Fold:
Amino acid sequence: MQLTLIAGARPNFIKIAPIIHAIQKAKDEGKDINYRLIHTGQHYDQKMSQTFFDELNIPKPDLNLGCGGGTQAEQTAAIMLAFEKELLANPTDLVLVVGDVTSTMACSIVAKKQHTKVAHVEAGIRSFDITMPEEINRMVTDSITDYFFTTSEHANENLIKSGVNEDNIFFVGNVMIDTLLKNMPRFSKPAFFEEHNLKEKKYFVLTMHRPANVDETEKLKAMMQEIIDNSQDLPIIFPIHPRTAKIFKDLVITADNLKIVDPLGYLEFNYLVQHSFAVITDSGGITEETTVMGVPCLTLRDNTERPETITMGTNELVGTNPEHIKPYMDKLFAGEWKMSGEIPLWDGKAAERIVNTVLNL
Ligand code: UDP
Structure:
């Protein structure tokens, strides 16, 4: 069985790592499985890409398509053109895509047009918010996927409702949590922890990069101000995504307790999250990680494609209206935040299940 694995952006690297390790393990056990790893180049700088390869022990890609930058359409087109050449030169039995980024969608389309089977890891999740580029990527990818690897019952239900044959849905758990559980003993304290005098459970971690929050400068400013005003002077550590940094440089937002830092590597970022009082974010993946680590999470979005992080986890949807931030932060300081329960199959074995399934296809 020959696989082509696609990874393009930060959350992809975290999801692909355990799959590669499970393939290598199966290969070492004499199983007939091989792969080519294709990096589309969607994220290309050291801090958004190479760091994750180094820290998570991901082998050097067989090919980097070098398709960074550009608008959504330019990037989709560039990836499709480059991946078509790759697939013609190196035919494969199965193209495996993960998550919901532009690379996920672009490479699945190319594969299907070449009559190659597609497997989608993290299939079926839906925010039902078509204004999100990720939602379009999810819908398009799932409409042409052959094998659906899912993280939750919600995802299974969404796929069944959209007419997918149940025999092609494999509820395997969450590869992002495989990476989290495996690397927890390796989390490392960032150098600035002492420098900023951070104390256990006495600081916030903030991340924001979704267009709905960061593209309107006035709204972004208002949200930041609400967070600062209601933080009771606890330090707010803000590892800033390159997309947000571009917009942020023209905004004048300063506060003694706001510490803006570069995007962090996986091991330092999750050390910071694990020891924080709470996380404020608009990321999807981070709501899963905080749920497993039992850290309160305030999500600056009006919807989520990961409802189990709310019903069973530590996540709450604060929304994108700045006025909604205060009541949630008050609740946090009042010590009234919910605890998390165990999420079915988020047990560190999803990648192993995926590889076993692929071997039996
Ligand atoms: N992450 C990281 N360093 C950071 C911020 C995030 O390693 O400075 C990790 C985080 O632990 C999670 C992933 O990046 O695994 C989430 O990526 P992102 O927020 O870009 O994507 P999303 O989950 O929103 O698709």
